[in-house]
Amino acid sequence: MTTVDVLYHFEIAPSERSVLAIARIREVYGIRRVTLDERAKTIGLEYDATRLAEPAVRQLVRRAGVMLVDPPSPEEPLEIDDPAVAQA
């Protein structure tokens, strides 16, 4: 088993109906833990990566009615002018 922790951010607090749906995510095979922090506006999930992929986990949260904030794009890679460092 390969356990993975993911943390999703939301801007608008989930409705009561969504909170109940989030609680039911725990029943999905492969989901080990679900945490909701309304103050930090985050939903944390621990899941078994041998059973579920991250896009499927994200979809479960979205289907629960939570509007997730997409993660920021990765920064552009730094260009290295020193050939010795670039080859390492």
Commentary on this structure:
This is HMA domain-containing protein. With 88 residues, the chain is of the alpha+beta class. It has a single domain, classed as Alpha-Beta Plaits. 28% of the residues lie in helices and 27% in strands. The protein is built from three helices and four strands. It has helices spanning 16-25, 54-63, 83-87, and strands at residues 3-10, 31-37, 42-48, 68-69. It has a four-stranded antiparallel β-sheet with strand order 2-3-1-4, with helices on one face. It is globular.
Q: What structural keywords apply?
A:
88 residues; alpha+beta; Alpha-Beta Plaits; 3 helices; 28% helix; HMA domain-containing protein
Number of domains: 1
**What amount of the residues lies in strands?**
25-35%
State the CATH architecture.
2-Layer Sandwich
In the predicted model, the low-confidence regions spanning at least 5 consecutive residues are: none
CATH topology tier name = Alpha-Beta Plaits
Number of helices: 3
Helical residues, percent: 25-40%
Mean pLDDT: 86
CA-CA gap between termini: 33 Å
**Class derived from helix and strand content:** alpha+beta
Instruction: Give the C-alpha Rg.
Output: 17 Å
With strands numbered from the N-terminus, the spatial order across the biggest sheet is 2-3-1-4
